[in-house]
Amino acid sequence: MRSVRGLLDTGHTKIIEGDLAGYFDSLPHAELLKSVARRVSDRHTLHLIKMWLVAPVEEDDGRGGKRRTTPGKDSGRGVPQGSPLSPLLGNLYMRRFVLGWKRRGAESRLQAKIVSYADDYVICCKGDVDEALAEMHWMMRRLKLTVNEAKTRVCHLPKDRFDFLGYSFGRYYSPQTGRAYLCAWPSKKSVQRLIGAIREATERRVLWMEADEMVQTINRKLLGWANYFSLGPTGKAYRVIDRYTPRRLCRWLCKKHQVHNSGASRFSYDYLYDTLGLVELTTLRA
User: Fold this and answer.
1) Regarding beta strands 120-125 and 112-117, do their DSSP bridges make them parallel or antiparallel, or are they unpaired?
2) 67 pairs with which residues across the strands?
3) Can you tell me the distance from the alpha carbon of 52 to that of 126, in angstroms, rounded to the nearest whole number?
4) Are strands 162-164 and 57-60 parallel, antiparallel or unpaired?
5) Which residues pair with 171 in a beta bridge?
């Protein structure tokens, strides 16, 4: 995130938001194993990885039985997801794109730099963004990957804005001075995902939990989210979450203790924050 922000500050304001269709399901085995073999010389390890790539997948057939399929073996593509090896191999193959971009001279010729995390990436350009987009398409075809045209777009800052890894990038106005500048802040989708997680954690099905245990569960979610979303102006996002969380916790406590009013007097903010120890995000950066 800091890399993207640094590039925006140096004038790389033409952004290609890249998206790959079914990235992990389309990784070609032969090319992927070549990348692995450049780093791993032990033949037993290489054989084990190859066996894992073509291992059968067992799924529920919808009728109470099991169905075994072999998509990796049949197509020679894809990595089974759900293990630590999948993101490792995904990052390794994406490195082909990043290194190829530099070796073909696209980075220097077009003043276009790639910032990537797993299969998520943006290309920050100073030069001809249309040429950079064409270069990206050509390289993805060579890598046997498919660009998701519906989700890949070009945006020009500060007129436009874009989202990357949970942050929104664009023009922001300082509430103190009114000055406009380019920066990153937590995206609306990221805020809504956290609110959804808190809502799910405080459903009726967990009324058996003790209040302090519930608060610990919520606090872990809040602190984990805030540790990541700590760059740029976070005040607005933090306030939205701080308004929602105590109301949701109060509602859960009312259901747990069968209180038939709002519970504002019995479960006041002082009780939630001081007695139970609920985390207030807006105080973390004070």
Assistant:
1) antiparallel
2) 59
3) 42
4) unpaired
5) 182
Q: pLDDT tens across 101-150, in order? A: 999 999 999 999 999 998 899 999 999 999 999 999 999 999 999 999 99
pTM of the model: 0.87
Rounded Cα gap, residues 282 and 37, in angstroms: 49
Q: What is the pLDDT of residues 37-52, one digit of tens each?
A: 999 999 999 999 999 9
Q: How many whole angstroms separate alpha carbon 286 and alpha carbon 270?
A: 19
Of 28, 22, 26, 25, which is closest to residue 151 (Cα–Cα)? 22
Length of the chain equals 286
Contacts within 8 Å (CB) and 24+ apart, 244-247: 244/195, 244/198, 245/198, 245/218, 245/278, 246/272, 246/273, 246/278
* Rounded Cα–Cα distance for residues 55 and 68 (Å): 10
Cα 3–chain centre separation: 16
